[in-house]
Amino acid sequence: MNTVRRPLALSFALLIAGCALAGCSVRVSDAGAATSTAASTSPTAAAPSPSPSDRANVRGVVDDERMAKLQRGRWSDKVTQHVACVDGAYTVDRNADALVVEVTGDCREVTILASAATVLLPAVDELSVQGDGNIVIVAAAREIVLDAGADANLVGWESGTAVVKDAGTLNGTTPIS
């Protein structure tokens, strides 16, 4: 029994650490279902409602506090790493953990392996998130895939309708506009 609890406890500790780095917290409801929320010190207005076509792609809790984190202008002057897509693809690797990365150029595919990073992206065909606790802002995406091991990520797209496939836990996805 102890061998089962140890990996579970370690996984939970890593998830909490990733959330702390990303500026979010985790709340477990009385019903036992885990939900992700942001700490808020003052009440705020309700987040804008997504269009009917995007409602199916909104997942997780994306309240005003988390929506504010999805504003590109908030991060533009904090970028620590500027990179460009080469041959239509780019991978934000683990060397970008906890950095603010801006990817430019003509990108068809972007993969995010980093954790606790903030990633600003141009329009892409496919975005794959495999790391934990990231904030990802994409101009537009055809498809957004959050892998089973990708937890506590916040992903927003500025235009269009993205198809979201979320196999992780505690992720939030939403249109930004």
From TrEMBL:
Transmembrane segments: none
Residue ranges that the Swiss-Prot or TrEMBL entry lists as coiled coil: none
UniProt keyword terms in alphabetical order: Signal
Segments of skewed composition (Low complexity): 37-48
Native source organism of the sequence: Microbacterium laevaniformans
Protein name (Swiss-Prot/TrEMBL): DUF3060 domain-containing protein
A Pfam short name: DUF3060
Leader sequence segment: 1-22
Annotated region (Disordered), positions in chain: 37-57
